[in-house]
């Protein structure tokens, strides 16, 4: 489970709406996706933890949200927020989802692990009045297992699938051992929601 934290947004103001978001990993076929519901008083930093828990990542790499020409990220190990290149950068804990998610159909991106370059597209599917049922993040549905950490991005993931189907060379057998008992089709919504209980 990714390291959890207390959502900063909840302490500041009550939620007005809940947001249904579909998070889809780009450049992967068949798609790997999760449908989550979060209150709009969560920060982008809180959403980072929700995505980590819902997708199945281990939260051991840098990440960034990108929306409207602005990049939002957390504090880096050296205390910086700005990467020193690319678009203007703001701290993800300084903005509530309700301040930047304004309409159904809105899209933005979340990148995890700049080495592997896992790009996630986030689609706003619904915005509804807040209710007791969704005071905490919930995963409603999803498909397929998150790729293994550090497998090399989309090309590396394709290699994972290849060796799972048919490892032939000694190098492929060695890689198959590294992959372990990974099942690319595995998805269990109850397990995901158990992980999310640590992100709320």
Describe this structure in a few short sentences:
The protein is an alpha+beta fold and 200 residues long.
Task: Report on the architecture of this protein.
The chain is 26% helix and 26% strand. The mean pLDDT is 88. The chain contains six helices and eight strands. The two termini are 12 Å apart. The relative contact order is 0.21. The protein has helices at residues 8-12, 44-55, 97-100, 153-166, 170-179, 189-196; strands spanning 17-25, 33-39, 63-67, 70-73, 89-91, 107-112, 118-129, 138-143. The chain folds into two domains: 8-145 and 185-196, Roll (Structural Genomics Hypothetical 15.5 Kd Protein In mrcA-pckA Intergenic Region, Chain A), CATH 3.10.290.30; 148-184, no CATH class. Helix 2 (44-55) runs antiparallel to helix 6. With 200 residues, the chain is α+β, with helices and mostly antiparallel strands. An eight-stranded mixed β-sheet has the order 5-4-3-6-7-1-2-8.
List keywords for this structure.
200 residues; alpha+beta; Structural Genomics Hypothetical 15.5 Kd Protein In mrcA-pckA Intergenic Region, Chain A; 2 domains; 8-stranded mixed sheet; 6 helices
Order of helices and strands: HEEHEEEHEEEHHH
CATH superfamily of the largest domain: MM3350-like
Radius of gyration from CA coordinates: 17 Å
Structural class, by secondary structure, is alpha+beta
CATH architecture of the largest domain: Roll
Instruction: Look up the CATH topology of the largest domain.
Output: Structural Genomics Hypothetical 15.5 Kd Protein In mrcA-pckA Intergenic Region, Chain A
What is the share of helical residues?
25-40%
Portion in beta strands: 25-35%
Which whole number gives the mean pLDDT? 88
Count of helices?
6
Structure summary, number of beta strands:
8
Domain count: the total is 2
